[in-house]
Amino acid sequence: MIVHYLFDYINFTGCLVIIFLFLLLIDVIRNKNPPRFPPGPRPLPFVGNVFTGLDFRTINKLAEEYGEIFSLRWGSDKVVFISGYKMVKEALITQLDSFADRPAIPMFQKIFQGLGLIASNGYKWKMQRKFASSHLRYSGDRQKPFELSIQQESVFLCDAFKDERGQFDPHLLLSNAVANIISSVVFGHRFDYHDGHFQNILRLDTEAIALSGYTQTRLYDVLPCLFDYIPGPHQKMFANYKIILDFLNDEIKKHKESLDPSDPRDYIDAYLVETEKRNSDPEAGFNMTTLVLATLDMFEAGTETTATTIRWGLLFMMKYPEIQKKVQAEIDIVIGQSRQPLLADRPNMPYTDAVIHETQRMGNVVPLGAPKSPSKDTTLGGYFIPKGTVVTTNLSSVLYDKNEWETPDTFNPGHFLDEQGQFHKRDAFLPFSAGNTDASLIQNLVTCTSFTHS
């Protein structure tokens, strides 16, 4: 009897081993790299390199070990990382058309559905981006200039700082202020700093962005059909986004109820009018779902990057008081104490402009660029990258490239000044990305807001 059970156990165990080896063989064959594919660390069976950290320090170390172009594997998906200014420029500028698509990453596909300003592709993306670019120059109150919204919010922010007593964390106030600037464009109005509901939305969004970087969350991309039913940080992230999207839907509903097509008040009104005009062109993607997700894109990309950049600016000014004094002296000479800064003042304030750009460089707010995907089989740096491969640029390596910056690890406004002390733009200044991308929209918002807040 015992021998019989032992024999059955061995047979069962043997079957499991055979099944495992069979699946392992399929995994190896299925995920075999094509010739001349970028090298990378050996992946684990089935899950790949999903446990490899995606912070920029880890990516920089891997680039040192495997070269400026290397690869990782997420489940069965291959991800290529590109580092260094020359290679990033080659991908994002020289071969712009080859790397123009956005990959369908399961975690973000569940939220953005391949729509909006960031996740869409092709003709739809071009139409959405063109519309957003033309309307981000103005805000509410019957399309007042965007710069005026920044100036007005600066007053509210300074007053809020004055109301604080002793030490305080400016994080939420800065996020609220920047979000209000975007709100003035999108919704046509701002939110009071004591608006509990809006502050909760900002907290949920900050938390969702943080959760998206967790290793446990990234496991969702390996087996989304399974992890849809497994508890974890990814479920909290999805729940946060649902609340945020409900908030945006409510705002859009209010606009639809009070819309006057002959007198659009803001971005949402203009989009609703455009939706009616585009009924005969469904491929352009003008619909309610895209509007909600495009609004989310603007809030996330604009609020987090701009607020974080300003926080870095505050830190650098405290750490380098001699630089702060030079900025203040230039402000006093050009602007004085009786008015707010204008964007028209920028050409006359090269040192302040240089400090803002150096803040963005050293702040390294977006160390990894948004994922892209080749629209066709492509060769980069001698490596073969098949169509559909996820490609991510290591922007941190560009901002700290020793071949491009005289003192890459030091806060040095001189990086952006010529011998005559005039502002000088650097080709390797790519804090958000390069080429014809949504990064230009973010770059304009960050620079305009940072300068006007100076």
Automatic annotation (TrEMBL):
<keyword id="KW-0503">Monooxygenase</keyword>
<keyword id="KW-0408">Iron</keyword>
<comment type="similarity">
    <text>Belongs to the cytochrome P450 family.</text>
</comment>
<keyword id="KW-0472">Membrane</keyword>
<feature type="transmembrane region" description="Helical">
    <location>
        <begin position="6"/>
        <end position="26"/>
    </location>
</feature>
<dbReference type="GO" id="GO:0006082">
    <property type="term" value="P:organic acid metabolic process"/>
</dbReference>
<dbReference type="Pfam" id="PF00067">
    <property type="entry name" value="p450"/>
</dbReference>
<keyword id="KW-0812">Transmembrane</keyword>
<dbReference type="GO" id="GO:0005737">
    <property type="term" value="C:cytoplasm"/>
</dbReference>
<dbReference type="InterPro" id="IPR002401">
    <property type="entry name" value="Cyt_P450_E_grp-I"/>
</dbReference>
<dbReference type="GO" id="GO:0016712">
    <property type="term" value="F:oxidoreductase activity, acting on paired donors, with incorporation or reduction of molecular oxygen, reduced flavin or flavoprotein as one donor, and incorporation of one atom of oxygen"/>
</dbReference>
<protein>
    <recommendedName>
        <fullName>Cytochrome P450, family 2, subfamily AD, polypeptide 2</fullName>
    </recommendedName>
</protein>
<keyword id="KW-0479">Metal-binding</keyword>
<dbReference type="InterPro" id="IPR050182">
    <property type="entry name" value="Cytochrome_P450_fam2"/>
</dbReference>
<dbReference type="InterPro" id="IPR001128">
    <property type="entry name" value="Cyt_P450"/>
</dbReference>
<dbReference type="GO" id="GO:0005506">
    <property type="term" value="F:iron ion binding"/>
</dbReference>
<keyword id="KW-1133">Transmembrane helix</keyword>
<dbReference type="InterPro" id="IPR008069">
    <property type="entry name" value="Cyt_P450_E_grp-I_CYP2D-like"/>
</dbReference>
<dbReference type="GO" id="GO:0006805">
    <property type="term" value="P:xenobiotic metabolic process"/>
</dbReference>
<dbReference type="GO" id="GO:0016020">
    <property type="term" value="C:membrane"/>
</dbReference>
<dbReference type="GO" id="GO:0020037">
    <property type="term" value="F:heme binding"/>
</dbReference>
<dbReference type="InterPro" id="IPR036396">
    <property type="entry name" value="Cyt_P450_sf"/>
</dbReference>
<keyword id="KW-0560">Oxidoreductase</keyword>
